[in-house]
Amino acid sequence: RCGGSVKRISIFGATGSIGQSTLDLIGRAPEQYKVVVLTGGANIAQLADDAKRFRPDVVVTAYPDKLDDLKAALEGTGIECAAGQEALVEAASRPADWIMSAIVGVAGLAPGLKALEQGTTLALANKESLVTAGPLLLETARRYGATILPVDSEHSAIFQALVGEEMDAVERIVITASGGAFRDWPVDQLANATLAQASTHPNWDMGQRITIDSASMFNKALEVIETKEFFGAPPEMIEVLVHPESLIHALVGFNDGALMAHVGPPDMRHAIGYALNWPDRGHLPVDRLDLAKIRQLTFRAPEDARYPALQLAQDVMKTGGLSGAVFNGAKERALDHFIAERIRFTDMAALVAGALEELMRQNVINLEVTLDNVRQLDHLAREAADRIALDLVT
Ligand code: NAD
Ligand code: MG
Description:
The chain has 16 helices and eleven strands. The protein is of the alpha/beta class. One of its GO terms (biological process) is isopentenyl diphosphate biosynthetic process, methylerythritol 4-phosphate pathway involved in terpenoid biosynthetic process. Belongs to the DXR family.
């Protein structure tokens, strides 16, 4: 960005939770930004409303069969409309100063890589990119001189705690977890947990998939792997701490015994806004915490038996290669099967473990981390998870 000029912004996954929070921030200072690209999925009404308000050069829906609806909704506006995965990647090549990667799942990887090839700044909410293809993403950023800024709240917290520090002085990285719906359940009852129970978060209202991933800690498992990939931290350095109040997002421990904790309101606009204003800080419209009113913060260790996903994350980090792609793909399918009420809550971890074992035996985990191989392993992992699920129910 040339000094003082307007910042060009593209948002991939604009209609989602992170995308909408990003637009909320942009909309508060419209004179500072020019929106270049907005993308969404099937929610054409939302995408078209946002396009009319923010006036991007191009709007892309992931789904080709929605293109006619999108064109109809934006008729007469002069805004270019496109659809499909290739159009998403093409849109990522349009020059922008700051690109938000907030598509959900492995679908975010290809546009993210293309964005990095511009040598620009990529604000990365799409944790699946790092989990499935961390080395590829970092190497692409390095080669093209691009910057990746973390937007996941824990990783933004770590990043902020590391400002002005050297990784050499870091001893441990602690990411916190709410503990999810079953943090107080007897462990031997987890196998009986219903879909409705797993879909209810003790602290807040989120989408169903992320709520279940919070109960199983599969989301935290992804974040542990994300920490290893983004910060280059060895697996044994990364810890998970259950912190039901969710106000400390992460802590970084240094070799002199200091622990730097990031405390903040549980509002994603903090992490998004930090990335938007980086390397400066700017005013953000988030709650200010009154710690005297909150009075206490509590912590406990995550039990292995309650959260087997955390051990699987350790296995993935030690195996490396494409095991993150297998982990993520199998986890998505395990979640599909649980949501369809075909398998029990506790079967999800078994499905993921089984898929990892099966693909290790086939010797495909240590192929090179390329976009094609990530897609291939994602596919194989889903197939393996489906087979194991079928075995469980028959
Ligand atoms: P969401 O489901 O609310 O939105 C996802 C967006 O991706 C939507 O715009 C949707 O249209 C689009 N999309 C879905 N499938 C697509 C596909 N196949 N191709 C192209 N676009 C597609 O998700 P979210 O909660 O905003 O999360 C986005 C990403 O940010 C995820 O990777 C998530 O793990 C991460 N994240 C979210 C939060 C949060 O609080 N919501 C916090 C940390 C990290
Ligand atoms: Mg997070």
